[in-house]
Amino acid sequence: MPNPVRPAAFALALALALTGCGADVASQDAPGKGSGAPGGHYPVTVENCGEKKTYDKAPQRVVTNDVGITEIMFALGLEDHMAGYVMPDDKGDLTSVPWKDGYEKTTWLSKGTINKELVLDARADLVFAGWNYGFNEGEGFTPAALRRVGIDSYLLSESCRNGRGKARGVMAPLDALYTDLRNLGRIFDVEDRAETLVGAFREEVAEARATAAEGGARPRVFLYDDGQDKPFTSGAYAGPHDIITKAGGDHIMKDLKDSWTTVGWETVVERDPEVIVINNYGDTSAERKRAFLKSYKPLADVSAIRHDRIVVLDYVDLVESPRNPAAVTRLAAELRGLTP
């Protein structure tokens, strides 16, 4: 996977964020108390997907599910608080990311599906996952089920259900990332690291936006995840919405009040995207997805297909993760390079 160029401020932020877990940081509750020092900082209360949760101490054996969630922990320098992570081996190159040391220091518990038996075997005290990012009523793996066996949960904010059935999303995607960084900063007493990351990410996104097209010059963009009968795509509450919008594109599915969902091809054709972004992961390669899009007859007259304007981003760029700001930078460069 290409390693996107990041501004110097972001590189500095990563250097600060990746200092060892023992580094002293100031907390809002107890200035000068860092790294879970006893007294002063705890208990702390955060709001997670509408629920107030109180922590009397920092969790010590966290199990994470999926690549973006795992890298949020690594970006905060919290590997020493992890029992391990669960994710398939289809998430791209993990050796060139800024926090690659986290993967080297932490146990890859399973390349399959996270489940209650696995986290019990890992002696987890907290599972960081999300709805459709590991938690699933059909599999019986839910925060409520874990609570019954004495294991706490933290839900990825991108996955929060919003009260319309199982639809997900309660805030803008980048706000979800910043919210989780700040919440975890409080939970683990690393608030300074969290604020450093959030500040650097905001700066990177602002730099990308400053060079992005505005108004009618913004190209219409469609996110294609997978699917042939019906395309799986992003609504307003999944990462691609903010990535596309802040990179200077007009996200054609911005009216979908959900995160990841399916639509009909007729809607895609009607909205005539000028650029298609492919989500690269899974058994179907980006090249096979591109070949399908270019050969699918109903799309033949869509602008993006006629002009071969197809961009590939990796899965971890597009789900909530600390790679989202760099994805904004990369897509902004791609969109600036389009010719009329």
Kindly report the average pLDDT value: 89
- Helix percent reads 25-40%
Shape: globular
- What proportion of the residues form beta strands (DSSP E)? 15-25%
The count of strands amounts to 14
Order of helices and strands: HEEEHEHEHEEHEHHEEHEEHEHHEHH
CATH structural class of the largest domain: Alpha Beta
The main pleated sheet reads as: 6 strands, parallel
Provide a count of the helices: 13
Number of domains: 2
* CATH H-tier superfamily of the largest domain: Nitrogenase molybdenum iron protein domain
Distance between the termini: 29 Å
What do you see in this structure?
InterPro entries: ABC_Transporter_SBP, ABC_transptr_periplasmic_BD. The chain is built from 13 helices and 14 strands. The strands form four sheets. Strands 3, 4, 5, 6, 7 and 8 form a six-stranded parallel β-sheet that branches. A four-stranded parallel β-sheet has the order 11-9-13-14, with helices on both faces. It has two domains: 8-203, Rossmann fold; 214-336, Rossmann fold (3-Layer(aba) Sandwich). It has 340 residues and is an alpha/beta fold. A hairpin with a 2-residue loop joins β1 (44-48) and β2 (51-55).
